[in-house]
Amino acid sequence: MRVLPKWDAAFLLTLVRNINAFQEGEAKHPHKALLLLLVLERFKQTGESLVSYSEVCQPLKELIQVYSGSKHAHPEYPFWYLQNDHLFEVYYESGLQFRKGKDFPPHSQMLKCNAVGKLPFWIEKILKKNDELLVQIERIAAKEIQGSVAAKVLADISKVRLEKTC
């Protein structure tokens, strides 16, 4: 018999601590944590977590370049794969095509099919009742990016204004 998790603050913190970041050697990629921080910033500003891919693709790409040191950033990867960590849901219009032999759509398809993403309802519900939990999640996610510059990451995220840029 499979036991379902208790969908509460403790479980949410566990999910955030266990974000499955792509790893090359000793270095973890910050892509998913950066997207989560952008979505949380939207939630703080508006009370809603819904973001369109066209809004986040450019700011996320720039943040990935800054915090991963990579010149070739792919914002479509965290936008799609954060779903696997149960922290994000992606919705799109019909016709979304995946890369041949891959399990994710390319950047152009995400734009064409107006992909949007958001925190799952149960997370939004918990966060609306608990401001301190949101702060805890931000700290955990920021430390996953680069522990020594967590405050800078949060400051950079708070300056981002999401608008259609791609």
Q: Any overview of this molecule?
A:
With 166 residues, the protein is mainly alpha-helical. The chain has one domain. It is 53% helix and 7% strand. The chain has helices at 9-17, 31-46, 53-68, 76-81, 107-112, 121-129, 131-146, 150-159, and strands at 23-24, 27-28, 51-52, 89-91, 116-118. A three-stranded antiparallel sheet has the order 3-5-4. A two-stranded antiparallel sheet has the order 1-2. A hairpin with a 2-residue loop joins strand 1 and strand 2. The radius of gyration is 15 Å and the shape is globular. The chain starts with 8 loop residues before the first helix and ends in a 7-residue tail after the last helix.
Summarize the structure.
The protein is mainly alpha-helical.
Parts with pLDDT < 50 across at least 5 consecutive residues: none
**Number of separate strands:** 5
Hey, roughly how much beta strand do the residues contain?
Answer: 5-15%
Largest sheet: 3 strands, antiparallel
List the total number of helices.
Answer: 8
| Sequence of strands across the biggest β-sheet | 3-5-4
Give the N-to-C terminal Cα separation.
46 Å
Q: How many domains, as an integer?
A: 1
Quote the average pLDDT: 86
Taken in chain order, the helices and strands follow as HEEHEHHEHEHHH
Instruction: Tell the overall outline.
Output: globular
